[in-house]
């Protein structure tokens, strides 16, 4: 088995509103898969369908080779889930909650638990009602990474963590990845996604709009370039892949699709380059355009 | 910026949130008040009927405990005797729930933090809550008065009845305001307020039960415990029989003192915190916590202990008052003679036991509704999501709470029966006999209690978002129809809706297995349907 999660054409409605509208998602075993989309796009709903907490109205879902609704309990022993909004029992301590989640999941590595507590600087003797949002998240994160499971479903696990804890979290993800485990990571933090993910899927309004490796996606991004030449520039605007060009004599500022970068630079050589600054292609820009309502696939592909 | 800035806006917000709930409470109460007179007249049409009934009542502590000390024979007197204390409890719950809803519950959910960051004074949230609840009690007092006047009752007495209710509501509102300052959780604050209502009801019950019969043989002077109870003050005003207006001073005075205390406490504490600092706990879980059943027990433990205390007090009361009842019986009073003619030897004590055990059944129903609604609280609070995402199936998760509700109710009933039987037996030198009367009588409440469990599981499976409202409504219907149905003069078919109408009134009635088995079967069907529905539905977050 090489596919850990396979979702195709899944539809889920709540009353009249359609949360998932033919969603596709494929996650390979052993990869860290980024799951991105604006608020309300359906990320948490998808994860809850994968957990068998919600039932899909239509479409195919397969998780670790099983059916998420029918085989829920057996599958849950093989996965760990960190919800986006961690709710704990107010009068249990963090330590008790971690042990409880571990036990209900089918076991917990005690040494690893203590090591993680130290790494995340979490006081396990405090009652959950006194924890901040970040500390409640740490409880769920520690409980997840101290479990011996094949799959991690992480729903914005670091939204309340400070940068030091964010680094600790990334380290944990790399460790479990090295052990060959699979991670589905829903996140809004682009640097986190760039640092950790092998592949990403971007969803909007319940539908997958983009899916691929980061390298593939980079091809969909644009590099910002500012040049100064010896001779006045002409004909730049008409080149394929060039956008938002501002040309003033020997100065030009423009954006270029990464796929067309080489051709455009060769074209500029004929005006004798004096200076060139470029801002590297950022996934953030790509995501931003997917997140905003105007962005469409065609526009991004530069067609 | 003043301490009270923004109060007006918060009042409007609270009224908007309560636009359905508060009118329902108020109109429902007024409607019950309005229906009372025809019920009383239907039950006791002539003065002769009333005289006969009250002569028996004044020697029956059990009835006095749950009604009131009789003050006379007029329609108004009979109404105050039969219904005043019961309605005062309803008004009390309306008030305390509203106060906690608009104070501590807002803090617990973080809404007060949002509000507090805006141009709103420190004292505004509590002030707004108290204004809303005071207004609600005022409207309730006026509507109740009008409902009574509309039933052709004397104006002054009707006003005393209505104001007594409103004043009792205000007192409990102030108690809830103080409770909401002291503890961190809305559940705990509601629990403290509910205990205060229960204690007030019990105190005046004891005062009425041990009251002194007047020379006329059918009216009474209550004993001192009634004077300690806000519900007692409403009865001591004697609507339609003297209208002692000055007694309104007591609730108003207590209201002012408690309100001052609540504000003093509110000024001295941080938003979101209680007066009692949170303690640290264990860094590791004990092994017995580490299962769905262990978790359910941990979550349900405090509720069960609280109820065990209430059941224990009640059982002890049954056991100790029983001897007073049989003393009255031994003294050969007129009422005892009548009862002996009617029911044979020992009938007085037995009817006392039967009436008490019906109340125990109602308490058990309230316990299981609260215990089973915990599953909805877990689901709505997102904790069920986290639990069910582990290797715990839905059946096992729901089943764990079911087991605790069933065993908990069984324990409470047995415990009460044993305690009451033991004390009654020691008082009457017949431990075996008293245990034989009270233990089976208490356990006989179990099948009807099981139906309440089954009912809550069914609404939880079917309409989770309404489970809380429907659960408590179901309890209200079961208790009102089953235990106060005759008082409300309801037709038998309506009373039969309540499972408690089908419980044989042991030890007066004969123990028959058929209705109990039928009740248990219905309970299993309801619960089974609820579990099946829950396993098929989406989690309602």
Automatic annotation (TrEMBL), chain A:
PROSITE patterns: ABC_TRANSPORTER_1, ABC_TRANSPORTER_2. Belongs to the ABC transporter superfamily. It is found in: Cell membrane. SMART domains: AAA. Its main location: membrane. Keywords: Antibiotic resistance, ATP-binding, Nucleotide-binding, Transport. Residues 5-230 form the ABC transporter domain. It comes from Plantactinospora mayteni. It holds the Pfam family ABC_tran. One of its GO terms (molecular function) is ATP binding. It is a peripheral membrane protein. This is Tetronasin ABC transporter ATP-binding protein. InterPro entries: AAA+_ATPase (IPR003593), ABC_transporter-like_ATP-bd (IPR003439), ABC_transporter-like_CS (IPR017871), ABC_transporter_ATP-binding (IPR050763), DrrA1/2-like_C (IPR025302), P-loop_NTPase (IPR027417). Gene3D superfamilies: P-loop containing nucleotide triphosphate hydrolases (3.40.50.300). It comes from the Bacteria.
UniProtKB/TrEMBL annotation, chain B:
Signal peptide: none annotated. Keywords: Membrane, Transmembrane, Transmembrane helix. The chain crosses the membrane at residues 22-44, 78-103, 124-150, 156-180, 192-210, 245-266, 304-325, 352-373, 402-424, 444-463, 470-491, 511-534. This is Exporter of polyketide antibiotics. It comes from Plantactinospora mayteni.
